[in-house]
Design a protein that fits this description.
The chain has 705 residues and is an alpha+beta fold. It has 26 helices and 22 strands.
Length: 705
């Protein structure tokens, strides 16, 4: 057995650029996994993935040509079935051995194991280790079949015998290379026999390139064929060259665009182009999007984020005379920018307000009506929220009325990604209130995890209203998220509501918000299915996930701390971080553990009680000094606890509980709560219930025990 590096490459026509990175990774991982499973790799083996527009390849280090032989213990049959009454081998046993390829095995070597009815017959053999060539063949076939290819191409390949064979792959394949060290493996796939040849850059180094040894693959392609085979390296080079070409300007480099451009070139070259300054009159978001989406160009801005009339292109041709490339791209982009300018100018001829009625022609959901119906619901919710916050109801109502009208504009029709953004521009042009205009865009915020929140009060109100309407409505028609399926992004909407309420510190009842939204749906099925309690729990679950990512002084909140706060089913969630921070500070006190344990004990006692507990304990029924002392201590402390709670001074509230530590200890030492006298028992339970309520004003301290 010997080891060498293994190279496998599939050379094709240009592969789908948006999925090339994923294809390259899947190809590499698939081949490596098969070899590892066959024990043809070593502890030091590693896989290097390569992916260019015209090739998928993997280089795996330290691959054996044959795996070591290994012992196999195979269960055959129960002994009672394997042998007849005379002790002779039965037909089922002989058939089983033949199926395993061991028909000629010496029956006396078979192992009996177990006792009685559980006794069975086992075959013990030394199996031959897998051979690289056969394993590589299987690995290549199975990996190619499992690649994440959205749409296959069907084509024909001429075989050695002259016959045509039907083949399917992402793109037609032309060559396959399989080298173990300097040895070509006798394998095939996609109607092609493997060899040791590939092809270089289509324009800069056309023709066939022979790779003498697997180790030379990357260097030979780079030095002789003008190809950077590593997707990662090519991407890093493009990013560095873009930054260099930008100079003092900022270059907009979305990850998706970088990946796509990397997938379009084998030998990247960066060139600077420009467009007429007159196009800068168009909102820059439109220009940026058309350059990125349609042309795969990189826009440039100044330090303040204002668009320049320069842009960068990534070409697959490196030349000292790029004038033709530059002028060609400048010529191509002009009609695109002209279209954007035309859409912008045409849209401005008609005010957003005039488009409201047309929303009635746009279906929202077949069970929830059209976009106009939805707009009216959002208006009512937004007005209700504004009233609760003592904000401007008229602004909230107007913003909700106009928020979705830009969906009917030509610009958003061409670029749906600009919804909201264009609404803000058009509302400003129409002379709408500045907050109303801003809300047209802000109500989509946060669009994703970590996204910014609205800056205006009206935008914040509308963002909550819009998300509530979607959440309650879609939930009400039976489309609540299940498993990984969440087509209406309800989890994102719920998290957005959490962030808006908490980070904007809005004192709004979550239950009342859900009820407000639900009241806007006349549909019986929505009223039946959209249960307030269910939606509340759904939102709180998102809050739980959000809080896990938060911290105090760099220390994340623990699951116990989060559970302690959320188990109280908080109706107002704007102060949850304050509660957690206070809980963290309380937990550092020497008495914290004792108070938490006592609270847990009280919880367990109250849970086990099946009879109704009086709302208040009666002083006259307190007989033992320890219960009298606890009653007095709690009575003296209650006003301070209430005042601290009303002022949201949670740290002070929790620290005040320390005064109850000794009375509680003494109570449990001296008092039998479950007294045979029901009057005394209920009075003591009432005292514990009062105590429990005061201890849990901030969080369920028992969760910390």
């Amino acid at each position: 057995m010997s080891t060498a590096n293994l190279l496998i490459e599939v050379f094709t026509e240009e592969l789908p650029p948006k999925s090339l990175r994923r294809l390259g990774e899947a190809f590499s991982e698939g081949i490596f996994a098969h070899l590892k499973a066959a024990k043809l790799t070593t502890d030091s083996s590693s896989a290097t993935s390569f992916a260019t527009p015209r090739r998928l390849a993997v280089l795996i280090s330290d691959v054996l040509d044959q795996a070591q032989d290994y012992p196999v213990r195979e269960k055959l049959l129960p002994t009672s079935i394997a042998y007849d009454a005379q002790g002779n081998a039965t037909a089922p046993l002989l058939k089983k051995l033949a199926a395993l390829g061991h028909a000629d095995v010496d029956l006396s070597t078979l192992e009996k194991s177990g006792e009685g009815k559980n006794e069975a017959l086992y075959l013990n053999i030394i199996a031959k280790g897998a051979k690289l060539e056969q394993t590589a063949q299987n690995a290549l076939e199975q990996t190619l079949n499992k690649l994440p290819i959205a749409k296959m191409m069907h084509y024909q390949v001429q075989q050695k015998d002259g016959q045509l064979a039907d083949v399917q792959f992402a793109r037609p394949a032309h060559r396959i290379m399989a080298l173990h060290g300097n040895t070509v493996l006798n394998i095939s796939a996609l109607g092609i026999d493997a060899g040791n040849q590939t092809e270089g850059h289509r324009f800069l180094a056309p023709g066939v390139l022979t790779i003498a040894k697997a180790d030379q693959y990357e260097n030979d392609l780079h030095n002789l064929a003008k190809v950077i085979p590593s997707f990662t390296q090519r991407r890093a080079q493009i990013e560095a060259e873009l930054l260099k070409a930008a100079g003092d300007d900022l270059v907009l480099m979305p990850d998706a665009l970088l990946d796509e451009v990397t997938a379009l070139v084998e030998w990247p070259a960066i060139y600077v182009c420009q467009f007429d300054k007159e196009f800068l009159e168009v909102p820059q978001e439109c220009l940026i999007l058309t350059m990125q989406t349609n042309q795969k160009y990189f826009a440039l801005t100044d330090k303040q984020g204002k668009l320049r009339n320069r842009f960068l292109i990534v070409s697959n041709i490196q030349t000292n005379t790029p004038e033709a490339i530059i002028s060609g791209n400048e010529r191509v982009v002009r009609p695109r920018l002209s279209d954007a300018r035309f859409f912008f100018q045409q849209d401005q001829k008609r005010p957003l307000a005039s488009r409201v009625a047309d929303l009635g022609k746009v279906v929202y959901h077949n069970q929830l009506g059209n976009q106009l119906d939805r707009t009216k619901r959002v208006q009512a919710i937004a007005s209700g929220i504004a009233k609760k916050l003592n904000a401007d109801e008229k602004l909230a109502h107007r913003a909700a009325e106009l928020a979705k009208t830009d969906l009917l504009t030509d610009m958003v029709g061409e670029f749906p990604e600009l919804q909201g953004i264009m609404g803000a521009y058009y509302a400003t042009h129409d002379g709408e209130n500045a907050e109303v205009a801003a809300a047209c865009s802000e109500h989509y915020m946060p669009r994703f995890a970590g996204d910014a929140l609205p800056k205006t009060a009206t935008g914040t109100i509308l963002a909550i209203a819009d998300k509530l309407e979607t959440l309650v409505g879609i939930w009400g028609v039976g489309l609540a998220p299940t498993g990984d399926k969440d087509p209406y992004a309800l989890r994102r909407h719920a998290l957005g509501i959490c962030r808006l309420l908490l980070e904007k510190n809005l004192s709004l009842s979550l239950v009342e918000l859900i009820e407000l939204a639900l009241a806007q749906f006349p549909q019986k099925e929505v009223q039946a299915q959209a249960k307030v309690a269910d939606i509340y729990e759904f939102i709180i679950d998102r809050m739980r996930a959000y809080l896990r990512d938060q911290s105090v002084a760099g220390k994340p909140f623990t699951s116990a701390e989060i559970d302690a706060v959320l188990s109280q089913s908080p109706n107002y969630i704007n102060d949850l971080i304050d509660r957690l921070s206070a809980l963290r500070e309380f937990n550092a006190l020497p008495q914290a553990a004792q108070l938490a344990a006592a609270n847990k004990r009280i919880s367990n006692i109250l849970k086990k009680t099946t009879t109704a507990i009086p709302a208040q304990s009666t002083k006259q029924l307190l007989q033992i000094p320890a219960e009298q002392a606890l009653y007095e201590a709690l009575g003296e402390l209650t006003p301070a606890l209430t005042a601290s709670y009303e002022k949201r001074e949670f740290v002070q509230l929790l620290k005040s509980l320390v005064a109850l530590s000794e009375p509680i200890d003494q109570f449990f030492a001296d008092v039998m709560v479950m007294d045979p006298n029901p009057e005394l028992r209920d009075n003591r339970l009432a005292l514990l219930q009062q105590l429990h309520q005061k201890m849990n004003l901030v969080a369920d301290l028992g969760k910390l025990a």
